[in-house]
Amino acid sequence: MTSSTPIHAPSDTTYDVVVLGSGAAGLAAALTASLRGLRTLVVEKAASFGGASAISGGAIWIPGNDQAVSAGLDSSLDSARDYLRHTVGAGFDADLVQTYLERGSEALRFLERNSELSFRVRPFSPDYHPELPGFSTGGRTLEIAEYDGRRLGRHFRHLRKPPEGMLVFGGMMVNRVDIQHFLNASRSLASAWHCAKLLARYARDRLSHPRGTRLTTGNALVARLATSVLARGVPLWLDTQAQSLIVEDGAVRGVVVLHEGREVALRARGGVVLATGGYGAAPEAAQDRPATGQAHWSMSPDSNTGDGLALGRAAGAAAGEHLASNFFWAPVSVLRHADGRIEKFPHLVTDRAKPGIIAINRAGRRFVNEANSYHRFVQAMHDDPAANTPCHLICDATALKAYGMGLARPGPSDNSPLVKAGYLRQANSLPELAQAIGVDLAALHTTVRRYNEQAAQGQDPDFGKGSTPYNLSMGDPNHQPNACLAPLLKAPFYAIELHPGDLGSARGLRTDAQANALGPNGVPVPGLYAAGNDMNSVMDGAYPGPGITLGPALTFGYIAASHIADRLSAA
């Protein structure tokens, strides 16, 4: 075994289920299969486990979940179905959506009762499209509970580490609640105490660990699943590349992998589950994205190069076509380090919606409601790429000190290295800022003046920033009269360049409601299943709300393994 393989491989190569991929979908499938009594193996291409799930926000969108029911929050599946029908549009698959809605809470209940997995419902977590029927302000989204990474033991070092920019103080993870406490620390004793406890824990961690062991968001989700899978003795092979599926008489019977430098044929009596994370990092992904003529940056791990799709297609499965979007979009800024390293930062929830921060295009004009979802933000960039790609977030000294922007930290933080690197542009006046970022001064002056006049009144009639429940949930609840609006007044002024990017691919293998991969004729390929981003998005590439990738990942990972177990028990 290589030194990076957490669990030594058994001597034989025959299993009931082989799962390719160790993100939320793959681990949910493996855990379910093991709990159902099946001999299970997880194969991971990378040297670390967790995939894109480990660096995600860790939220799941599952309407009708038990926590929402108990809390008296919106748990109507009918309204959720109506909302998805209007959000997804032409690609709405009634059978797939119905299965997701009916079995999502079942999957969550099973996994929470039989593992370390633990979520808490967000009472106020609005969907992303308030203009559509069935929209809800809370109850559908759950967030993962924090987790002690020390419970992974020696396997903690193999958990995929979040990007540098998503850690604070060099290695401490924080969630949205922690961030709000840090922003309020100077004006709230409760927040100051919360932050002090986090810092004390982190200081202790660094005495014996390379980073903090208090895990949040996607790291907590993957760690909880992985701890449960490993505790059941399920082997997890890292650094293992799937080469081809074993197909006999039209059915998938296993997979050939490259393990420790040699090819190993793994037999899978019940089937193979593809959960390799999609193809966001594949070179050929460029042909499935809008042609903007500008750089595009994916947050997908480098190992997510479409292995599952390629394997599935070679075995006769078909990929989805004509999705609303082939990827889940997010604006990304890029820091180029002096040593040549590239650091990417996805602008999801920490800055765009905050008061005193606006986005301007190449002409120096606003073009979007900055507080809308990251997916909608990039769609606005794509609407007129010549004008809107790349664009800039700009703010004044007050906003930067209060909220930070991108990799620039709030408060008394020293952001001068980011200025020196050219990531954060700093200027003593708007004319100087316009020159620094190459936009027309007159246009920028007009844009800022108009925005400032409207922000002072707490309204944005031009783009509606701060006019929806979701907008307000992302703003500053302590800022009035509008949590998302404040004028840009105090020098120095700052700018960060944003590029179109994505969080992963939506286009995957077509499946039925049991997660069976389907051929071009709509008939299942026996023994082949797909989940996570290897499965064609149940949302058809739309982005209805927070957690709409991880929710289906857990659900259909569970469904795939359950279907295999039911088949084998009935044989």
Automatic annotation (TrEMBL):
Keywords: FAD, Flavoprotein, Oxidoreductase. Gene3D superfamilies: FAD/NAD(P)-binding domain. The keyword Iron does not apply. GO terms for molecular function: oxidoreductase activity. Residues 16-550 form the FAD-dependent oxidoreductase 2 FAD-binding domain. Residues 283-303 are annotated as: Disordered. The keyword Transmembrane does not apply. InterPro entries: FAD-dep_OxRdtase_2_FAD-bd, FAD-oxidoreductase_2, FAD/NAD-bd_sf, Succ_DH/fumarate_Rdtase_cat_sf. GO terms for biological process: steroid metabolic process. Its cofactor is FAD. This is FAD-dependent oxidoreductase.
